[in-house]
């Protein structure tokens, strides 16, 4: 796929206007306040993985509306504690899988919490273990369109709340330094990490790659690839629903979360990405911290990959993330 979005020089200046709802902050404050009524941890059970250099626990914490959300929590065996923590969010349609699948961060010396995606896990990978009991609102079958006609009903209101609560949960776990917590994710996970950066003012760092739900309106005009394609397919059938859908999506816009973020931030994007167009990543990066002062942090950087699509920098991006986070966390 040839480059299809803006040239790099224009991406570096790309600061689109936002159709941001006046009650954006109140909406999320009210949503999180309700979730905070519940104690974060439900259970922490050790798991035998057959691995000798890591210790793993099956964690259940309370997310949106107090719903139980599953996660894997892993520590380096015999590590000196407390450790800085990485909370990792996973891609669209994927579940947390098996506990031995994602070991990069724990092998780098971090406590690692891998959050399951509620109501997902059936598209690829090794499945998930967190149902979503709030699926009765109008919308299509995919997560991007579940509850699309109201911000109160949309799937991502619940998933973003889960993501914020995952930070609360990891800070309550043994062996963790709560003052040093990072949010990490790619694609849907990148969008969740960015939302967490905007909603958790004392987050230690955000690592965001190929983020979904950034520059949503432009992305809907640029690509028919899923997940954005699921939204356009829904609107192609429900021809009178466009205004309601755009209103809902305005409460989920990653650029709005980016504007409110405080934490140091590391971004990456493939310039040929037709799934999450690079203009969304740059829009979030260029407006990052503009309401909080976080945009002035010299530890904010973005890495474009001119010949890559949604795979972005893959292992090269991870190598850069490891070095950057070690400096930010003073590991």
UniProtKB/TrEMBL annotation:
Residues 121-143 are annotated as: Disordered. InterPro entries: AB_hydrolase_fold, AXE1_dom, CE7. One of its GO terms (biological process) is polysaccharide metabolic process. Residues 1-326 form the Acetyl xylan esterase domain. The active site is at residues 187, 273, 310. Substrate binds at residue 92. One of its GO terms (molecular function) is carboxylic ester hydrolase activity. Transmembrane segments: none annotated. It holds the Pfam family AXE1. PANTHER family: CEPHALOSPORIN-C DEACETYLASE. This is Acetylxylan esterase.
């Amino acid at each position: 796929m040839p480059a299809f979005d803006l040239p790099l020089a224009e991406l570096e200046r790309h600061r689109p206007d936002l159709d941001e709802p006046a009650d954006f902050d109140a909406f999320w404050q009210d949503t999180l306040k309700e979730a905070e009524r519940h104690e974060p941890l439900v259970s922490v059970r050790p798991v035998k993985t057959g691995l000798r250099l890591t210790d793993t626990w099956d964690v259940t914490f309370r997310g949106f509306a107090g719903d139980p959300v599953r996660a894997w929590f892993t520590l380096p065996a015999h590590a000196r504690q407390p450790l800085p923590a990485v909370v990792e969010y996973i891609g669209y349609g994927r579940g947390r899988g098996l506990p031995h699948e994602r070991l990069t961060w724990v092998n780098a010396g971090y406590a690692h919490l891998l959050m399951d995606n509620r109501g997902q896990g059936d598209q690829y990978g090794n499945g998930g273990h967190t149902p979503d009991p709030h699926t009765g609102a109008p919308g299509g079958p995919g997560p991007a369109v579940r509850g699309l006609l109201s911000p109160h009903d949309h799937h991502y209101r619940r998933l973003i709340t889960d993501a914020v609560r995952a930070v609360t949960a990891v800070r309550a776990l043994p062996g963790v330094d709560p003052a040093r917590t990072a949010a990490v994710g790619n694609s849907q996970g990148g969008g969740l990490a960015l939302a967490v950066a905007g909603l958790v003012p004392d987050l230690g760092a955000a690592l965001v790659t190929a983020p979904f739900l950034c520059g949503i309106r432009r992305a809907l005009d640029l690509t028919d690839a899923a997940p954005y394609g699921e939204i356009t397919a829904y609107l192609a059938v429900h021809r009178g629903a466009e205004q309601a859908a755009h209103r809902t999506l305005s409460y989920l816009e990653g650029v709005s979360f980016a504007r409110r973020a405080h934490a140091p931030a590391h971004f990456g994007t493939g310039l040929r990405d037709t799934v999450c167009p690079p203009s969304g990543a740059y829009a979030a990066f260029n407006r990052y911290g503009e309401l909080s002062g976080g945009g002035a942090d010299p530890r904010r950087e973005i890495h474009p990959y001119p010949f890559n699509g949604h795979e972005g920098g893959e292992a090269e991006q991870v190598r850069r993330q490891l070095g950057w986070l070690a400096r930010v966390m003073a590991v």
